[in-house]
Amino acid sequence: MITLNYDNNKKSISIPTKIFINNEWVDSIDGNENFSLINPTNEECLGIIGLGGRKDVDRAVEAARSAMRGKWSTMAPLDRGILLNKLADKLEEKREEMATIESINVGKPIGESFVYDLKQSITFLRYFAGWADKITGRTIPISSSPDTSTPTRQVLAYTKQVPLGVCALILPWNFPLQLLMFKLAPALAAGNTVIIKPSEFTPLSTFYLAQLIKEVGFPAGVVNIVCGLGSVVGDAMSSHMKINKIGFTGSTKVGKMVQNSATNSNLKHCSLELGGKSPIIIFNDVENLDLVVIHSFHGLFWNAGQCCSAASRIYVQSEIYDQYVEKIKKQVELRVLGDPLNKDTHQGPQVNKNQFESILRYIEIGKREGATLVCGGKRFGNKGYYIEPTVFSNVTDVMTIAREEIFGPVMSILKFDTVQEVIDRANDSEFGLVGAVFTKDINKSIIVSDQVQSGLVWVNSFNIIDPSIPWGGFKSSGKGRDASEYCLSVWTETKTTVLDVKL
Ligand code: NAD
């Protein structure tokens, strides 16, 4: 159990931290009982949690498999939707606690976790609650009936979208609860059972959610949680012979490993939401450059730059390039770094020491390779993993900071002249998650959004994210879609019945 104190020790939240199987908290069989969670704000130990091992995964799989055969399998789809809505109600009720946990564990400002992460999590549950009884199949007209001489004979073919079975959800640390909901809500709406592996760095909101899942009445074994190291628990899941699907969100490097073990074990289904290096393209005809600056600023610096969608390549047309750089610098100067639980804080620390050191290394590489440091560029303060919001101008396509995912508050601004040139340069990346174009010319906006190779392109905005909008990448940014009606196909299988009807 970890207890978090907040509001000057006037309030506290207690969170169980073991393995959650069959709606019970159990000790790990073969994991590591002593993993320290570090508070990124002050580098102190938040508490010790128990990590799971391979045998815990086996145990969770058995629970999830038997739940697939139990009352979950016969529950009316509408009732699955009602349970998801009850969970959404519970999250509304516990919104403050949940947002606080997320802010303390991840280091994200409470203004963001309360307003954004919790709102999205609740909305995702409600959206997919609505889908639970609307996942339908088709009837198919048949042309090749084997016997046309019998007039009363008909062949009826129909499809159903059936659950896949036991799904493992492997998650990153940047939006622990919200990204869990991207997968948990549709997986359950479609009738699957799940085993969740939160990031070992940020499991607390998932642990807290487990209690709410039990309280609202999900049958035992439908949702299980095994937190552990990726190389142990994550690997045991992707190579498991009795898991039917992996829903993975994380880095491209690990995503490829997960895909390989998923294929080489039992050819299980696998959907992957991976890294990005997203471009924003700003044409010199924009009407309100100040607004564009705000959009692109948040596009990169939101969540301290720890976003898969982070707009880390900003292409600005030559005529307005200098003006844009000047305005971004002014915007950065207004950014308030500090305690994530303080409502006035805009940016908290990076999530952990590894990320912190990796980002500072990228900043040094940027300087060494000849980009111009406009502002920031170093640690903020001397305690906690804080990094100053950093902007580089005169960045070229070959520089490391323009090619690799930094996953921190580091903006690269590049200059371009023509439409085709910027499309080709934006596409010269292994990634293809999202992108944006800013222009008042509708023709340009359509041409650029059609040709930029990414799963989603915003026009004159950034980061409009909604459960009804498909989410997922092209190229090394992943495969399959989270969110929206489109994701239902990654949580179900098509089952066809062909019926020979004769009198
Ligand atoms: P990561 O790949 O290091 O870890 C993600 C998860 O995989 C963690 O739970 C980790 O424990 C687990 N894992 C690690 N090694 C594993 C292995 N061998 N087998 C199975 N699982 C393993 O990523 P991260 O550092 O937690 O998150 C940051 C990355 O996630 C960034 O690249 C970011 O772009 C990406 N991301 C993508 C999206 C998206 O929607 N496309 C959203 C958020 C984050």
TrEMBL record:
Please give the InterPro entries that the UniProt record associates with this protein.
Ald_DH/histidinol_DH, Ald_DH_C, Ald_DH_CS_CYS, Ald_DH_CS_GLU, Ald_DH_N, Aldehyde_DH_dom
Q: Which domain of life is it from?
A: Eukaryota
Q: Which UniProt keywords apply?
A: Oxidoreductase
- Active site residues of this protein: E273
Domain Aldehyde dehydrogenase as annotated: residue spans: 25-496
* One MF term in the entry's GO annotations: oxidoreductase activity, acting on the aldehyde or oxo group of donors, NAD or NADP as acceptor
Q: Does the keyword Oxidoreductase apply?
A: yes
Task: Give the family this protein belongs to, as stated in its UniProt record.
Answer: Belongs to the aldehyde dehydrogenase family.
Protein name (Swiss-Prot/TrEMBL): Aldehyde dehydrogenase domain-containing protein
Species name for this entry?
Dictyostelium firmibasis
Q: What is the lineage of its organism?
A: Eukaryota, Amoebozoa, Evosea, Eumycetozoa, Dictyostelia
